[in-house]
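subagent[fold] <- orchestrator: predict structure for attached chain, return tokens only, no commentary.
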Amino acid sequence: MSATEAPERWRSLRSAVEAIQNGDVARLESLLDAEPVLLHDRIVEPDAYRDARRHQYFLAPKLIWFVANNPTLAERMPANIADVARAMIARGVEQADLDYTLALVMTSSVAREQGQQRPLMHALLDAGAVPTAESILSTAGHGERDALRALRDYGIPATATIAAALGEDATLRELLADADARTVQEAFAVAVINGHTTAARIALDAGADVNAFLPVHGHSTALHQAALGENVGLIDLLLERGARLDTCDKLWDATPLGWAIHQDRPIARARLERAAAR
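subagent[fold] -> orchestrator:
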């Protein structure tokens, strides 16, 4: 729904977004009861957003997506944001939107920093939101480990991705014993991104490709991410397992050493320079 298609509906959507960001549950409920379709409309942005080559994860959002504040559209989230979410859920949010909003909340650093990630996750999970494999991978890939712990605390079973991201080595070893190649590679990626050397070793022992571009942050290899994290133990492990020093990332055409230099990681830089000199 764009402003040119239905100006009145557009104004109602804007008012509903403002009510969400202000924590005004009564105003939001009034708007939704007057126009139930607001929960199902999409807010359509200008063509430039749809034409962008880079993935737009908040493209044409639904109203409930705004509770996650991801991307950050409000400096402060209201203290009652979980109640705001429940007001919409009570009026019939579609399953796909519950699931996607959960993914947005799980990857929202702002929600975590402001103490709203877990309350929102609980509100959505109580309503039947499902943490998909894709959302778990994205959460682990963004280092939102407390969101993964919240899933475990809620009773969501461990997966290899969760175990690798949290450094739960015994669980990971068990889960990778008969896992497929994709699961192994995803576990390896998030172990590296979250700085867990032993978990990365377990995934490599299970057959992970040390030089493959990662399934999350797919422009980079494990060695790029280890350099960025300046984890010398992890860098040494990857080099021992044959990680290439000359692979360039897909966005900036830089090697892992180039990342270390650009991001001012002197310890990683020294380690990679020594490896290159041999």
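orchestrator: received. Logging for downstream: The radius of gyration is 21 Å. Residues 92 and 133 are 24 Å apart (CA to CA).
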